[in-house]
């Protein structure tokens, strides 16, 4: 279609059910533009730890999380996390996924189930609960501390058999329980893919775009707007704002360019 000016606003590759399948990246490359590596962002994470599927459907409201890339902390947050049949999701997980930028790295999540209590305070709290429930099996003595669905899977992360009577627990076993509650570790996490990602990270390289007009620096009359660009942000309206602002700038500039050439 011959035209005086064109705006590419075809969205990202994520959530193709909405109609955006990533065509714009091909259009950009055909015009000589560089497209940076695409990856799903704001997406749930897959995790092989059976604890996740055992707790599927369980939402934890006020937990702390820390994301590790090859053992190095890269992100921390506080809020709501959801276990799924394949891994973890929920607001803090979606935000964490935005920081999984490396193509091949080991990603792990550490979950602090009791962020309001430091280790010593939590240990005293566990001790108090156990004194009140001294003849119970440990799996039945955690009712004041953990939701029912999480008790047995969490014990499986320690060396404590669920049937162990509370009064037979060693100090070291209690310490391992406190550790599991303060730093439950989920390893080998991977983003679940473009189909379920709220946004696509990566896209048309910004160095080749004029930020005032969204005009291509390579092809006169060509403009880009929205998620097709190498621009993404957290949830909370920021991605929509990116689309609105770049769309307004690109549309205004493209119209002016076309009128100029009449
Ligand atoms: C489930 C979900 C929830 C979201 N929630 C939020 C939120 O709460 N806050 C937030 O900020 N962002 C949110 N986003 C992200 C936000 O919606 C997108 O970043 C934003 O819509 C991108 O706008 P866009 O115009 O660039 O692309 P899109 O909105 O994807 O629009 C692209 C359009 O181009 C069309 N198209 C694609 N290829 C072609 C082609 N070859 N020819 C013709 N037309 C084509 C598509 O059909 C589509 O209509 C959410 C996304 C999803 C999927």
Fold and architecture overview:
The protein is of the alpha+beta class. The chain folds into three domains: 6-41 and 195-260, 3-Layer(bba) Sandwich (FAD/NAD(P)-binding domain); 45-115 and 185-193, Elongation Factor Tu (Ef-tu), domain 3 (Beta Barrel), CATH 2.40.30; 119-184, Helicase, Ruva Protein, domain 3. Helices cover 30% and strands 19% of the residues. It is built from seven helices and eleven strands. Strands 8-7-4-5-6-3-9 form a seven-stranded antiparallel β-sheet. A two-stranded parallel sheet has the order 1-11. Strand 5 (72-83) and strand 6 (87-89) form a beta hairpin. The longest helix is centred in the C-terminal third of the chain and has 23 residues, at 238-260. Bound molecules: flavin-adenine dinucleotide.
| General shape | elongated
Figure out the total of helices: 7
How many domain regions?
3
Bound molecules: flavin-adenine dinucleotide
**Percentage of residues in helical conformation:** 25-40%
Structural class: alpha+beta
How many β-strand stretches? 11
Mean pLDDT: 97
Give the strand line-up of the largest sheet: 8-7-4-5-6-3-9
Low-confidence stretches: none
Strand content: 15-25%
Which fold name is given in CATH as the topology of the largest domain? Answer: FAD/NAD(P)-binding domain
The CATH class designation of the largest domain is Alpha Beta
State the CATH superfamily name of the largest domain: FAD/NAD(P)-binding domain
Question: Cα distance, first to last residue?
Answer: 17 Å
* Largest sheet composition: 7 strands, antiparallel
Per CATH, which architecture of the largest domain?
3-Layer(bba) Sandwich
């Amino acid at each position: 279609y011959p035209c005086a000016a064109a705006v590419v606003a075809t969205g990202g590759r994520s959530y193709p059910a909405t109609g955006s399948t990533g065509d714009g990246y091909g259009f950009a490359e055909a015009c000589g533009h560089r497209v940076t590596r695409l990856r799903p962002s704001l997406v749930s994470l897959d995790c092989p730890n059976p604890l996740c599927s055992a707790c599927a459907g369980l939402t934890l409201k006020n937990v702390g999380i820390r994301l590790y890339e090859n053992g190095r902390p890269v992100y921390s947050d506080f809020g709501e996390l959801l276990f799924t049949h394949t891994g973890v999701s929920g607001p803090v997980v979606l935000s964490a996924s935005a920081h999984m930028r490396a193509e091949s790295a080991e990603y792990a999540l550490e979950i602090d189930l009791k962020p309001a209590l430091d280790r010593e305070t939590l240990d005293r709290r566990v001790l108090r609960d156990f004194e009140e429930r001294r003849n119970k099996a440990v799996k039945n003595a955690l009712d004041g501390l953990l939701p029912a669905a999480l008790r047995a899977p969490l014990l499986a992360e320690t060396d404590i058999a669920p049937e162990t009577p509370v009064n037979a627990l060693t100090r070291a076993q209690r310490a391992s329980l406190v550790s599991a509650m303060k730093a439950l570790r989920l390893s080998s996490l991977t983003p679940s893919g473009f189909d379920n990602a709220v946004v696509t990270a990566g896209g048309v390289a910004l160095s080749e775009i004029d930020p005032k007009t969204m005009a291509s620096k390579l092809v006169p009359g060509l403009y880009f707007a929205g998620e097709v660009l190498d621009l993404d942000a957290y949830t909370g309206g920021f991605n929509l704002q990116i689309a609105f602002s770049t769309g307004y700038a690109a549309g205004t500039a493209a119209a002016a360019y076309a009128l100029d050439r009449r």
